[in-house]
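Quick question, first post here. What does this chain look like in 3D?
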Amino acid sequence: MNKIKTIIATLLATATLTSCSDWLDVSPKSQIKEEDHFSREGGYKDQLTGVYTAMSQQTMYGLNMGIGFVEVLSHSYDVDANGDWRYANEFDYKNSGVESTISTIWQSTYNAIANLNILIKNIDQADPNSFSGNNYAVYRGEAYGLRGFLHLDLMRLFACSPSMDANAKGVPYVTEYSTNVVGQHSVSETMKLVIADLEKAREYLSTDSLKESSSRYSHRATRIPYFNYYAATLSLARAYLWAGDKQSALKYANEIIDCAEDSTSEKRLSKPFSWVHYTTMQSGNRNEQDIAFSCEHIFHLTINKWEDTANFYFKSKGGSNALTPSDDTAQDIYEVALGYGNDYRYLKGYEQDGEKRYMCKFWHWEGGRYNDIYPLLRMTEAYYIAAECLKDSNPKRAIELLNLVRENRNLSLFPLADNLSADEIQNEIYKEYRKEFVGEAGQLFFYYKRLNATSIKGASVVPGKGVYVLPIPANDAEFGGYGN
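> Answer (accepted):
Ran it through. Tokens below.
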């Protein structure tokens, strides 16, 4: 039967959960009734914790939608022709292993959405006065925000981008937990649903103490990862740019930029995100260097047992399944031949392990201060979005934004010329996506797809719909009647 129609509200790794594990256990003898689970405020927090935990599993952003399958599509890595990733690297979506991975991504993401819909249904009916502080609005905002965020990623994988065909079918936008088959809207209509959820999330999360107190050390910030006000804001910038509405995308990107640029000097530590400080990068101890620029993250996941994943796929023990750019590819990405070898992303982001150098920005370091986190939204994306929106109308500002990123990546001696054309600015934005997002959830692949690019650097296949749009799993295509 159709997986969406029959999806069970359970998160695939209940053993890693604590207080919500009984609720998520599908065994009848231990299952807690829905009304009992949400009879207390803690039940809502547990439900959200369960969703974040599910998102952190290898079935989702812990591998498949993170450093693994989706990122392989970007062609930032040099994939071994004898390894398991070779079929994804060739966009062979009919390979049985690839089909299984695609099906897992689809099912796991809709499973997380189902749990969010259960929460939303119950919190919409709950008495706001039964919640402490601002938790009613914040939990509600998190749920709506995550629902929009996850549907957007499904759109970026399983539907045409608007620039390809705005009238094509979007993914089913599921807003209720029920046995009813959810219909499909067009790409443009589905994007309106994504944006509506994110707008609603931003409204509810405006009361979040992370924003209200401007302190990353507030009581809410101690529960990072969580989908916060700024995550909703940047997700809206991303969604609007995907939809082709540059005016709205710029509006939300500028809010992130304004906050970031006000996070310097004495205000730096009191802001929710800020540029990585050079002293953090110059520490003599590798485990004290913030190689992934975690202080710039707007939304990240904390991944349990990340060491088993990152120190396998990003080290020599990964063998033919290791994921890393080769030396030649890394030097090409970071334009070392032009003298940019001091770029922190290159200088600090690669390390020798055995006979080869590997990308190390996500390594788990013994005693490391920045272990086990994986970014899904980082503030630099706002700079790239704004630059793209301004390249025609205000190229000087677009160049200034890109130079701000370069300065904070240790390239202050190499500013971009202030007379670049719009096309040249776009090319610099593309190069920044290559440099900034290696290993990060297919961001470069989605860049290609959003622009309907006619080539993907490093790929032997000419991209088109057959490359950019993942096939909907066979069961859902056959029994649910879904297509793309």
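The beta strands are 297-302, 350-353, 356-359, 373-378.
The two ends are 19 Å apart (CA to CA).
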